[in-house]
Structure formats: structure tokens, C-alpha cells
Design brief:
Layout lengths: L8 H10 L3 H6 L2 E6 L2 E7 L13 H17 L7 E11 L7 E11 L3 E12 L2 E15 L8
Antiparallel strand pairs: 1-2, 2-4, 3-6, 4-5, 5-6
Length: about 150
């Protein structure tokens, strides 16, 4: 967790939740930015996230995009409420290849129960970004349910 993230309640809340995700740790993903309605997640590219042609596996791309959407949605939800993805659709636009991926999630429309979010995933090579995927997600606010919290 970057120091700048701990400066806000949303930053602390999202970082604490992110750090509980075994999949993000397994992939090597890192939380870069938390702002109201926005989250950025970084994924270093290496053999552990590759598919048979050497590109980043679509599952890894979808995982960071889904998390970016979910955490962007969580920043717009009240304290004490958790977030779950109810549905997502991903478009893979180009092979994910380079030095790292950045998933930028943002809230499109926040509601009391459902929030629509969009993530764009960029492949970064030598500082140049190329859009490689877009994911839309419907995220659900969940409270008062065993095992689900912020």
C-alpha cells in the first residue's frame, strides 16, 4: 500500500480490503490510486500471468479490471458496507504485452444498491500506454451478511 493511500478513510478502507485478496497477492498486483469513484491497480508482467503465446492471460486482465471497478464502487458506498460484483463484461481489444498493466476503474453511476463502473486496462511498455481491454461491471452494496464487510 502506498503512503498516499492511507491519507483518506476511503484509501485505508480500500487498501485494507485489497490486501485481504489472495488473488491480487498471487498475481503480484498493487494498488496505485484511490480517489472518490476511482481506483488504479498495477500488475507487473511476467511468466506467472502469461498464457501460451506470452501475452498476459485474459483471466489476469479481467481480475485486475474487476477489482478496479469494485473498489472504485466501494469508494462511493457508505462505511460498513462491502462490495460484490454482480455482473461484468470484458472486451479484449489488443494483446496485453509490455512491462506492466494498469487497470483504471471509475464509477459511471452510483446508486444505493447497484453501482455501474468501467475499467480500462492499459499495457505499458517503455512508458507508452496501449489500451488492451475494457470492462463494465455492476457492483452490489452488501451489508449485514455474514462474511462480507468493507
Amino acid at each position: 500500500m502506498a503512503d498516499a493511500l492511507s491519507d483518506t478513510e476511503n484509501g485505508r478502507r480500500v487498501a485494507e480490503s485489497f490486501n485481504k485478496q489472495g488473488l491480487m497477492a498471487t498475481l503480484g498486483a498493487r494498488l496505485l490510486l484511490v480517489a472518490p469513484g476511482e481506483v488504479e491497480i498495477d500488475l507487473p508482467i511476467g511468466p506467472q500471468v502469461s498464457q501460451q503465446h506470452g501475452f498476459v492471460h485474459a483471466g489476469a486482465v479481467a481480475a485486475i479490471a474487476d477489482s478496479a471497478c469494485g473498489y472504485a464502487a466501494l469508494t462511493r458506498m457508505p462505511a460498513g458496507v462491502g462490495v460484490l460484483t454482480a455482473e461484468f463484461k470484458i472486451n479484449l481489444l489488443a494483446p496485453a504485452a509490455g512491462d506492466r498493466l494498469i487497470a483504471r476503474g471509475k464509477v459511471v453511476k452510483a446508486g444505493r444498491t447497484l453501482t455501474l463502473a468501467l475499467a480500462e486496462v492499459f499495457a505499458v511498455r517503455d512508458g507508452d500506454e496501449k489500451l488492451c481491454a475494457m470492462l463494465t461491471a455492476t457492483c452490489m452494496a452488501v451489508g449485514g451478511r455474514e462474511g462480507v464487510s468493507d
